[in-house]
Amino acid sequence: MTQIDNIPAAMTEIGKKARAAAAELSFASAERKHAALIGAAQAVWENRAKIIEANKKDLEFGRDKGLSPAMMDRLMLDEDRIRAMQDGLRTVADQVDPVGEVITEWDMESGLHIKRVRTPLGVIGVIYESRPNVTADAGALCLKAGNAVILRGGSEGFNSSREIHACLVKGLRDAGLPEDSVQLVPTRDRAAVSEMLTMTDYIDVIVPRGGKGLVGLVQREARVPVFAHLEGIVHIYVDKNADAEKTMKVVMNSKTRRTGICGAAECLLIHKDVVETIGHDVIRALLDKGVTVDADMNLSSISGVNPASAEHWGREFLDMEIAAKVVGNVEEAMDHIRQYGSNHTDCIMTEDQATADLFLSRLDSAILMHNASTQFADGGEFGMGAEIGIATGKMHARGPVGAEQLTSFKYIVTGDGTVRN
Fold first, then answer.
1. CA–CA separation, 18 vs 25, rounded Å?
2. What is d(CA 230, CA 223) in angstroms, rounded to the nearest whole number?
């Protein structure tokens, strides 16, 4: 690890390099960006042994730090996950380049022709914890959208991120693009995070990706605009017209496939008319799988459930634990979600389209699902190749933030000696 004596000066230098790289990237051809990403993908696969060896050091660091099993799972890289990382890089590379896309155009009576055209944001700062694969995802998406990026990975994944970053730099170098387009902050010192949050001269947008503590800190202290979600408090509402088999499959997948991701279900809302049938069957299946179920008194007759208290509503467990509650109707379910949800992802299980339409139109979560696992709340599963994060705010980027969401736009106005009366 590089020892940095003067972090403000070092971060300023990184910012200057990023700004210079962004100026060049803004007009880089789609072919060169594609070549850089394909080269990075090849380098990741060719260097998989080195990445896995570096990851072993990170896993040891994580164990010594006392990370939870869910966080250790996020940190771990194996050959399958490196293959997925490589595939993500290739998928992003093969997407249509968003820069220069004409979003819309029109003519005015004055004689002007006006186009709204996609343009890079500039420099993106990404602050993330645990998951070293974010190094590849964030680097790829920012590059695809013509942005330079400053990556500040978590202390847990420091060694893995350095190896992955080296692969990205090789792709850039071989494609003739500035190596400073993707920079990794070379220290675990948290003072670098504080610096990034105030670098308004160099960073255009900050994207935090991690736990509540990190994201809350960024949202409180950043002077740079932020794309973020604080928590993934994900609900599944089981309607009275839900299909039992579909509900069982979706709930079990949503909760147990990977408990540590932000799309994992954290609260189950069950219509009172199907408590004795679908509700009991699903909760017993969760218990049999080893999930701790914190249930309200209407579900207390089920052997093995724990009594829920107020602290269980609106909680992101990120573990084999889920809250469960009986509701009278879809309106009551929506009221609960509005009070305790985080505008991340919420799902309805129903065969009644009118009820589904009500749920989908009246809730304002970034992602709303009907009869589908909430674990699909992921940029890769949305066809974006990867994501830089899930945004739950009201800025132009909501839900999975892919390359297109990492652009802004400008207006191109053309006349023919046209003057205003």
1. 10
2. 17
Task: For residues 93 and 41, give the distance between their C-alpha atoms in angstroms, rounded to a whole number.
Answer: 9
Is residue 125 exposed (0-12), middle (13-18) or buried (19+ Cβ within 10 Å)? Answer: buried
Write phi, then psi, for 120 (nearest 5 degrees): -60, 155
Return the pLDDT at 2.
56
Residue among 339, 408, 370 nearest 237 (CA):
370
Return the CATH fold of 234-376.
Answer: Aldehyde Dehydrogenase; Chain A, domain 2 (3.40.309)
pTM (global) more than 0.90: no
Q: What are the average pLDDT values for consecutive 10-residue runs of the chain, which has 421 residues?
A: 81 98 97 98 98 97 91 92 95 95 97 97 93 94 98 94 98 98 94 96 93 88 89 96 98 95 96 97 98 96 96 95 98 98 97 98 97 94 84 85 94 96 91
Q: Is 185:150 a contact under the CB 8 Å cutoff? A: yes
Looking up tokens 């909501």 gives: 398
- How far apart are alpha carbons 263 and 207 in whole angstroms? 18
* Amino acid 233: pLDDT: 96
- The whole-number pLDDT of residue 1 equals 47
Residues of the chain with CATH 3.40.605.10: 7-227+401-414
Size (the chain), residues: 421
Domain with CATH 3.40.309.10 in the chain: 234-376
Q: How many CB atoms lie within 10 A of CB 123?
A: 29
* Residue of 308, 317, 314, 371 lying closest to 343 (CA atoms): 314
CB contact at 8 A, 405 and 396: yes
Pairing of β 345-349 and β 234-238 = parallel
Tokens, residue 79: 């050959």
Domain topology for 7-227+401-414: Aldehyde Dehydrogenase; Chain A, domain 1 (3.40.605)
Tokens of 376: 């699909």
Cα–Cα distance, 208 to 218 (Å, whole number): 7
C-alpha to C-alpha distance for 204 and 4, rounded to whole angstroms: 24
Q: Which residues contact 402 (CB under 8 A, 6 or more apart)?
A: 141, 379, 382, 384, 385, 386, 387, 388
Chain centroid to Cα 275, Å, comes to 34
Q: What is the CA radius of gyration of the chain?
A: 23
